[in-house]
Write a structure and sequence with these properties.
This protein is of the alpha/beta class and 244 residues long. The chain has seven helices and ten strands. It has helices at 17-32, 37-42, 48-66, 120-132, 164-179, 186-209, 214-243, and strands at residues 5-6, 35-36, 78-80, 88-95, 104-106, 110-112, 115-117, 135-142, 144-145, 155-156. Strands 2-3-10 form a three-stranded mixed β-sheet. A hairpin with a 3-residue loop joins strand 5 and strand 6. The longest helix has 30 residues, at 214-243. It is globular. The relative contact order is 0.17. Residues 1-14 have low confidence and may be disordered.
Length: 244
């Protein structure tokens, strides 16, 4: 998986008051630490490499609005620093002997096969509870998310280390979630955002760096590796599904 996006309205989750409070606190902290790309570009302390990536993010946003028709918003016009590389830790679970995902229910967005925590410790505690119920559990870091809240979502500073194509794909993927979202249709939502992110990133790189650029060729090579890996996983899935 090239990115691990989250469609979360985690702040509105109906799981428990404690989860709501922790999610709200984590999100507010993430937002409050954010600085606008404009101010960072004006700051003489911003190093040249970071400056290049900030300019790229700004260009991707404008490309998404002007050329792709995604809904204009303030999302990812600011950058927030984190202690680690991920914004949240996502918990997923499944039956041990069947490909049946455990789901959580959230107001407004419906049933989702994952749940995010701003604290890794809280995610591990949730994983422990699910394991004690006999489920297989998987934890993974989340690079970015898009909420339906009126306050714009920032980009995590750590994601500026991504290659140009991967960074463009991440932003376009999340902006697609902010434009199109169907309740209880997570597979469709993710498939659409992945298609828009990948196709849009390739078009953006061709427009900004040229159709024969190293940035575009490297990005396409990475996509091909991901597709080969996905094909192998699908083959294994089919074999296991037939056995069970």
């Amino acid at each position: 998986m090239r990115t691990v996006p989250i469609l979360a309205a985690v702040l509105l989750a109906g799981c428990s008051p404690v989860y709501v409070l922790k999610s709200a606190s984590g999100h507010l902290g993430f937002v409050s630490r954010a600085r606008s790309i404009e101010s960072l570009l004006k700051d003489p302390a911003t190093d040249p490499e970071t400056r290049k990536k900030l300019e790229l993010v700004a260009a991707v946003r404008e490309f998404s609005f002007q050329e792709m028709g995604l809904e204009r918003s303030g999302d990812y016009s600011r950058v927030s620093r984190l202690k680690g590389p991920f914004v949240t830790t996502m918990v997923m679970a499944s039956d041990k002997a069947a490909f049946k995902a455990h789901e959580w229910w959230f107001p407004f967005i419906g049933r989702m096969p994952y749940k995010a925590h701003f604290s890794r410790k809280d995610a591990e505690a949730e994983a422990g509870r699910l394991e004690r119920r006999g489920l297989d559990v998987y934890l993974t870091g989340v690079a970015a998310y898009n909420t339906p809240l009126p306050v714009a979502d920032p980009l995590a500073h750590a994601q500026l280390a991504l290659a140009a194509g991967d960074l463009a794909e991440l932003i376009l993927h999340e902006l697609c979630h902010g434009t199109v979202f169907l309740k209880d249709r997570v597979d469709f939502d993710e498939a659409l955002a992945s298609f828009v992110g990948e196709a849009g990133a390739a078009d953006f790189l061709a427009a900004r760096f040229g159709p024969e650029s190293l940035e575009l060729s490297d990005y396409r090579a990475g996509l091909e590796k991901s597709r080969l890996y996905s094909a192998e996983v699908e083959r294994l899935y089919a074999e296991l599904d037939a056995l069970y």
